[in-house]
Design a protein that fits this description.
Length: 256
């Protein structure tokens, strides 16, 4: 759903780009630069009234197909078109809906391998998609051959997580609140919904906290661990998302 601010920004965007488009036939006198509203409407096969309402920031609820025609009429670049659809709160119907990849972006993989401190990558479902030796040593019950790679399932269900995390209950509550922020951006992702349903069945605490509706941004900060071999450890955690795949995360832990 578009907010009032989104509609206002969308209206300003459409008007600015309408005024940049050259008319099909040059005329001697024009009061405004670029296309007139009726010319843009004709190009996009929509009514002049709708053009005016969009530019005025009204809640017209245009369909993705209508917006696609408007984007073509405005001659938007790929980046401009992506921003346009983001403001409109719609998915671009001309972008193929391919299955999400489980492969870590090359940038995440390269950084994980280059770092000496614990580092790992998470995909959109918070499955570990890559990690280095330091991370595998720290998270012995989670990372490594034959392990369950989902961070939420490990944190909420694996007995070793309760040992590794001295403040286990607080940590998993925060973790779930951070995951919900991602969930809210992917409401039509069936795999993500299925993961939530499974975890609600597998963990009473997960089900309780999910119903609590807590939402938090993923933030860095101090992280304490009680390692079975190394004893108490303290790290500073930082999380990054690659520009080319913002649904992935790179998590790095620096010793303190």
């Amino acid at each position: 759903m578009e907010s009032e601010e989104q509609r206002r920004l969308l209206g300003h965007f459409v008007r600015a780009h309408r005024e940049r488009v050259a008319p099909d036939l040059p005329t001697r006198r024009r009061r405004t630069p670029g296309l007139r509203r009726e010319e843009l409407a004709a190009r996009a096969a929509i009514s002049v009234t709708w053009c005016a309402w969009i530019e005025q920031g009204r809640d017209v609820r245009a369909s993705p197909e209508t917006l696609a025609r408007l984007a073509v009429a405005l001659a938007l670049t790929p980046a401009e078109r992506a921003y346009f659809f983001e403001l409109a709160g719609r998915g671009d119907p001309d972008i193929p809906r391919s299955a999400p990849s489980s492969e870590a972006p090359e940038s995440v993989h390269a950084l994980v391998e280059a770092l000496e401190h614990p580092a790992y990558g998470l995909d959109r479902l918070w499955n570990a998609c890559c990690w280095n030796e330091a991370a595998e040593h720290l998270f012995d019950g989670w990372l490594g051959p034959g392990r369950q790679k989902n961070l939420l399932r490990y944190a909420f269900i694996a007995p070793s997580a309760r040992t590794l995390l001295p403040d286990w209950e607080d940590r998993v509550r925060r973790l779930l609140a951070e995951f919900r922020a991602d969930y809210g951006r992917a409401l039509n992702d069936q795999a993500m919904s299925a993961l939530v349903d499974q975890l609600k069945d597998e963990s009473a605490l997960f089900a309780h906290e999910w119903n609590a509706q807590s939402v938090l941004a993923r933030e860095g900060g101090s992280r304490r661990f009680m390692h079975p071999k190394d004893g108490p450890l303290m790290y500073e955690q930082h999380t990054f998302s690659p520009a080319e795949r913002p649904d992935y995360k790179l998590v790095v832990l620096f010793p303190r």
